[in-house]
Each structure stands twice: as C-alpha cells, then as structure tokens.
Amino acid sequence: MSDETTTGLNHRKLLMWVFLGSDCMFFASLIGTYLIYKGSGVAHPGPTDVFDIPTTSVSTFVLLMSSMSMVFSYAYLVRDNIKELIGESIFNQLFGENGELYNYNSVSSTITVNGEEFSNNYIIELIEMLNNNQINIIDVNAE
Fold it and tell me: Is 118 helix (H, G, I), strand (E, B) or coil?
C-alpha cells in the first residue's frame, strides 16, 4: 500500500476521523430528537417497552468478551506464543510435546497440491525447516 496522499494526511487516519465525526453527528441527532420530543405530551413508549434489558445485557456482555478474546489472541500471536494462548494441555493434544508431530496418522500417505503429489514426510520436513528458520515463505497465492 502506498503512503502517498493527495491531502498530505494519512488516508486511513483521515477516514477514521470522518467516521468518528459522522458517528458524533448521528448520536447528536438522536439525543437532540429525544430532547425535543421529551416534554411534548404525546404518549410515547417507555424504555421498558422498547428495550429488553436482560437480552441486551447478555448481548453486550458477549460482544465485550468477544472483543477482549480477540485482543488477547492477537497479543499472544504477535509474541509467537501459541502454547500460552490455547493452554499447554490443548497445545500438546494438537501438536504433541514441544510442538513435535509424533504419532501422526493420516488416511493417505500423500497430499496433492496443484495436481502434484507430495508425501506426508516431505510436508513434515518442510514444517520442521520452517520452525527452525532454515527456509522462509516469500509468497503464497490462493484461489
């Protein structure tokens, strides 16, 4: 992505400020409409008629916990610590002790990629070489 801009400002930062400004205007209009009609004497539904507080509370809690788990997941992944993220017992169940794939059984002894067959041993060797920083992945294309 290019950092060149036509305004001299970072486009992502500018768009974030435009979004925040539109959000402020939207909520200001909602609050203003409420204040205008508040004392008009017309019978309006009350908050308990419009909102189901228990359902809204549960939904809000789920949303906040989801956001928190994403933040924690990202923090552990940035530190390259998957074992600490998912817990040692689950990590060992998935990847074996110390991340070694022992007792690995597959239905087929080959994997087909783009019409070419590769042995499972070859794939495991590639994974070990990646883990030991002996090789690097430069580019991946997927369709």
Answer: strand
Question: Could you report the per-residue pLDDT of 43-85, keeping only the tens digit for each?
Answer: 777 777 788 888 888 999 999 999 998 888 888 777 777 777 7
3-state helix, strand, coil in the chain (%, to 5): 60, 5, 35
92 forms beta bridges with none
Note the pLDDT tens digit of each residue in 11-23. 888 889 999 999 9
The Cα–Cα gap between 37 and 51 comes to: 19
Quick check: 59 and 66 in contact, CB under 8 A? no
CA-CA distance, 99 to 131, in Å (whole number)? Answer: 10
In this structure, what are the phi and psi dihedrals at residue 111, rounded to the nearest 5 degrees? -125, 135
For residue 47 the two structure tokens come to 């908050």
Determine the Cα–Cα distance for residues 49 and 130; give it in Å rounded to an integer.
59
